[in-house]
Amino acid sequence: MSGQLTVRLEETVPGTGELNYAVYLRELSWLDPDIPLIIEHLDDADQYRRAAGYIRQVAASLDIPL
């Protein structure tokens, strides 16, 4: 988020921004196991591969099955 008065979120490839995916995935794991986690608004297939790889790596480090 920027330091301006209006809230502004900038989407980035997971692992390159400020969102703590360990906390996010841990909290998400308490919900229905079939709940989707969606990766969207990236520029190309390489960014989607990197994003999915990062999220899988974080989940594996927390023993959270995906």
TrEMBL record:
- Upper taxonomic lineage: Bacteria, Bacillati, Bacillota, Bacilli, Bacillales
Q: What is this protein called?
A: Xylose isomerase-like TIM barrel domain-containing protein
